[in-house]
Amino acid sequence: MCIKINKIVFLAAVFTASFASVHNSYGQNNAIIGIRAGANFTKISGDLETLDLDDLDMSLTAKYRPGFQVGVVANFPMNNDNFMFQTGLIYSQQGVKWEGSGSEPYQGITINYEADAEMTLNYLKIPAYFLYRHYLNSGNILQLQAGPYLGYGLGGKLKIEATASAMGVSETNSNEETINFGSDKEKHHLKTFDLGLGLGAGLLFREKFHIGVAYNIGLSDVGLNEIVKNNGVSLTLTFMFGSNNRTVYE
Length: 250
Fold this sequence. Notes:
Helix content: under 10%
CATH architecture: Beta Barrel
C-alpha cells in the first residue's frame, strides 16, 4: 500500500511541476483550464493480439474495446499566438476485446465453441502536448496536437466467457480475474507506468468548446511476461474556461 501511495504522490508532483515549468518559461499569461470527457476505442499490440484458450484448443483475435475518459486539462499560452502547451490529469478506461469460434468432433458429434474475452485497464494519464492553432475566418480554431503522455495503471479486470453447443444444447462458462499493476512477475500482470505518443486534431469553437479526435500510440512495453503495448483512438469534448483574447468573432 505504501508503494502505491508514493507513486501517486510522485505523479502529482510531476503534474504540478509541469504547470510551473511551462508558466515560468512562457511568460505572464495564465493557464486556460478545461474539463474533458470522451470515448476511447482501444486495443493492444504485441504477444497478446491473439489470446490462446488451451482448454478449448482455439485462439481469440484482438478487437477494439469501447471505454471512456474524463478529466481536466490546462493550456499554457506561449510566445507565439499559434502555439500552446497542454497538460492535465485524465482518468482513462482502456483495454481490449477478443473474439473467436471453433469446433471439434467428439464421439460422432460436432461441438461448436464461441468465446469472447475482455480486459479493462484503468489509467491516470498526464499529457504533455504541444498545440498548433490555425485561426479560421469564421473565428473558430483548427487545432493540431502532438506530444508524449505518461500513464499510471490503477487496476483492471479480465473476463472470459465461452459457450459450447451441440444438437440444440448449449452451456456457457465464465471466469473473471483481477489485473494487478506492478513489477513483480509472480504477483503482477502489467507494469505500472505506460509511455506513449498522442497525435490529434480538432476544432475549437469560440475558444470554449473543443471537439477532437486523437490516436494514442504506445511506446513502452507494459507487459511483464509478454510484449504488450496500448493503442487506441479517442473522441473528446472539452469545455475551456478562458481565452487568450486573440480571436475576433464576426
